[in-house]
Amino acid sequence: PFDRARIAPGLVRELGGRSHGLGIVQAVAGLCARQGIPMAAAGVETEEQLQLLAAERCVQAGGPLFGPALAARDLPGLFGGQAELRGPEPRAIRAPAEAGEASPAPAASG
């Protein structure tokens, strides 16, 4: 299962031209609408691309139009040093137990 469909940058670049890009985006948008999942686009470079995607119910977009990509270490500077970057707590990842073997004990937290 998946929680969204992503339009790749190469396909976004094809929007507005004489290619089949818009038709593919429209097909994906229809599938997303029927399945009740959002559509996102990466690599948006122009207002025209953004408008075409919005017209097809694209709800998330990213790319050069919105600014350059930033490393995580640069994000606090955007918030005047007020942001604290925190991620999920690390946890052990275990391979699934082989058939007939007892399941491994959960990793101790702490």
Average pLDDT, to the nearest integer? 80
Helix content: 25-40%
Count of runs of 4 or more consecutive helical residues: 4
The coarse silhouette is globular
Main beta-sheet annotation:
3 strands, parallel
- Pairing-aware structural class of the strands and helices? alpha/beta
Our estimate of the beta-strand percent is: 5-15%
What value does the Rg take, in angstroms?
Answer: 20 Å
Cα distance spanning the termini: 32 Å
**SSE ordering:** EHHEHEH
| Poorly predicted residue ranges | none
Q: Which sequence of strands runs across the widest sheet? A: 1-2-3
| Strand count | 3
Structure, briefly:
By secondary structure, the protein is an alpha/beta fold. The chain is 30% helix and 9% strand. A three-stranded parallel β-sheet has the order 1-2-3.
Structure, explained:
The chain has four helices and three strands, in the order βααβαβα. It is an alpha/beta fold and 110 residues long. It has a three-stranded parallel beta sheet with strand order 1-2-3.
Features:
3 strands; three-stranded parallel sheet; 30% helix; alpha/beta; 110 residues
